[in-house]
Amino acid sequence: MPAPTTRTFASPVVEAKSWLQGLTFPPERPLIDAGQAAPADPPPDALREVIAQAALGDPAAHHYGAVLGQGPLREALAANISATYGGTVTPGQVAITSGANHAFCAALAALAGPGDEVLLPTPWYFNHKMWLDMAHITTLPLPCGPGLIPDPQEAAALLTERTRAIVLVSPNNPTGAEYPPEVLAAFRDLARERGIALIVDETYRDFTATPGAPHGLFADPDWDDTLIHVYSFSKSFRLMGHRVGALATSPARLAEIEKFIDTVTICPTPLGQIAALWGLENLGQWVASQRDEVLARQSAMRDAAPALAEAGWHLRGLGGFFAWIEHPFPTDATTVARALTGEAAVLALPGTFFSPEGDAMGRAALRFAFANLDAPEIGQLAARLVDFKGP
Question: pTM, whole model, 2 decimals?
Answer without folding.
Answer: 0.96
